[in-house]
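tool_call predict_complex ligand=NDP
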Amino acid sequence: MSAIIIDGESVAAKMRTRLIEEIDTLKKKGYYPHLKAIQVGENAASRLYVQNQQKQCEEVGIKYTLDELPADTKEGALIEHIKKLNNDHQVTGIILQMPLPEGIDAKKAQILIVPQKDVEGMNPANMGELVYGNTRLAPCTAMAAVELVKSIGVEIKGKVATIVGRSAIVGKPVSLLLLDLSATPTICHSGTKDLSAQTKKADILVAAIGKPEMIKGDMIKPGAIVIDVGINRVKELDIQGNQIINPKTGKPKMKTVGDVEFAAAKEVASYITPVPGGVGPVTVVMLLRNTIEALKMSVHQ
Ligand code: NDP
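tool_result ok
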């Protein structure tokens, strides 16, 4: 039997509708969300993110502004800029665009964003709340992965969950969020022996590895819920396995795949997220959700 595809776009659309109502209510009470993005230097990928964030914010009624700092900005100047925004009452959320120029310690800068404006959920205080089970602001991708599991409507309590990947922005927070929902999580990583034995136990399998199609169909328990966080750009091949060349550019055609071998996995799983169109769209809406949560945190201080 073929798995039901979990449509990230439709989960994101429902969340967006709820957010619009919530923002409207907040504005009626005199509270206006304002997300400030900081970009240091010019970067094509980061510029695209910024444009997308701006569009998404404006669609739901969040003010979005961008501070562009020159590429030769020193770490100290960036830190001063973040401190200034931390104290600016007009700014309710701050996002630091990556990558930062060489010589700036991204983690050091990012954790200086005060917890109540930390829309990416990366401040140690917010991470700590996650451990305490009082999650308010958590990393967007991790929350998106769990939101997609919740969207199915099956009971999470008692489920065996395997999370492949232990990064601070995905693997670890996903396992804590699932633990909070009374699943029984195991985190796997590059040191895990017999990965397949772990993934095959999983009622809920979350892949956050960054390796194209590494999770094969025979590594999945029949009927499992599969959440594929991976985003990998790979060359497109024809049926003989040869690269397809784009006639316009003369370069190999590229496509985006996840960390799960989708075609095989969907024949084994009961539910599966596609790539693209699964975790990605929900992650973007989680940033909006966090911006509103951050505003509410500031209001209730
Ligand atoms: P990281 O590179 O930070 O972490 C990858 C994890 O995978 C590490 O814990 C690593 O283990 C583990 N790993 C690597 N190889 C293996 C292996 N052979 N067996 C078992 N575990 C392995 O990646 P991120 O967490 O930042 O991202 C993961 C994926 O999610 C990427 O594809 C990324 O593009 C995507 N992503 C998607 C987002 C979205 O919005 N959809 C947002 C953020 C990321 P170890 O710790 O031992 O090295």
